[in-house]
Amino acid sequence: MSDVPKDTLVTYDVREGVAFVGLNRPEKRNAISDRFVEALAATVVRAEQEARAAVLFGHGDHFCAGLDLSEHVEKTPIEGVRGSRRWHRVFEGIERGTIPWISALHGAVVGGGLELASSTHVRVADESAFFALPEGQRGIFVGGGGSVRTARLMGVARMSDMMLTGRVASAREGEAWNLAQYVVPKGQALAKAAELARKAAGNAELSNYAVINALPRIQDMSSEDGLFVESFVSAFTATSPEATERLRAFLEKRAARIKHPGEL
Ligand code: 1HE
């Protein structure tokens, strides 16, 4: 992307109802500084208002090298807590907002970069992507929600291994460990993420909201409570005017039927 403005930390563009949010600090491998996280926060709010789905990607050769380490040399403990809580709020705006987020991952998906990717709903990695959690080597700990989100994706055993031993996972290992749902050839993650985002943008907004917000919360409940909540979310979603129209469209043969993967 040669026409990307150099002074914009996060690029933004909406096409066909999909917001494209680009991490744009390639000279520092998209490391997340305080200013960077504020730029991301503003862009997340804008995407929520203007799009039905969003794609998050990195400009340059890497998705994101995590926390900007140069800003953390002099921080006090309470400043560290405030910074971490700010990341939590911004990433939660992605994870528990109203639109689906698809991330396109390539190169380094490291530390806070992996925490950021973990807050998106679908992750597409290209074959150049690699995952690492070098916090132990840097003398720090995850602070962007990784101990909750990333640990739930890959499990505590794998995450402990990565944090304790510095193990680096390839794109394929990341897929097997649930860090990515798709692996595509090098250079194709953004196109695949855009394709998936357009599909998600075509869904009923309330269904997408339920997937994003009800599904993860139900995992935190007992089975009894989960089934109880599911019935309410299900009934509320299915009786919305948009659902009524979509159900009619199917019955009147105006909607596409589902195809076997071999037919696509
Ligand atoms: C940075 C950062 C950064 C690069 N903070 N400046 N994250 C890490 O421990 C990852 C550290 N970075 C790396 O291991 C490598 O930079 C990469 C594998 C990501 C990319 O390697 P490469 O060879 O393409 O780039 P480079 O030459 O290492 O870096 C280019 C420049 O980016 C260089 O600055 P320059 O002024 O010398 O040109 C690097 O210093 C700079 N740079 N990464 C600051 N992270 C809320 S808790 C979250 C906790 C974490 O995220 S811990 C993980 C931190």
UniProtKB/TrEMBL annotation:
Listed Gene3D superfamilies: 2-enoyl-CoA Hydratase, Chain A, domain 1, Lyase 2-enoyl-coa Hydratase, Chain A, domain 2
Record GO terms (molecular function): iron ion binding; lyase activity; oxidoreductase activity, acting on paired donors, with incorporation or reduction of molecular oxygen
Entry coiled-coil feature ranges: none
BP terms from Gene Ontology: fatty acid beta-oxidation
Matches recorded under InterPro entries: ClpP/crotonase-like_dom_sf, Cyt_P450_CS, Enoyl-CoA_hyd/isom_CS, Enoyl-CoA_hydra/iso, Enoyl-CoA_hydra_C
Entry keywords, A to Z: Lyase
Keyword Lipid biosynthesis: no
PANTHER family found in the cross-reference section: ENOYL-COA HYDRATASE, MITOCHONDRIAL (PTHR11941:SF54), ENOYL-COA HYDRATASE-RELATED (PTHR11941)
Family membership noted in the UniProt record: Belongs to the enoyl-CoA hydratase/isomerase family.
NCBIfam families xref list: PRK08150.1 (NF006013)
Protein name: Enoyl-CoA hydratase
Organism annotation: Ciceribacter naphthalenivorans
Protein's gene: fad
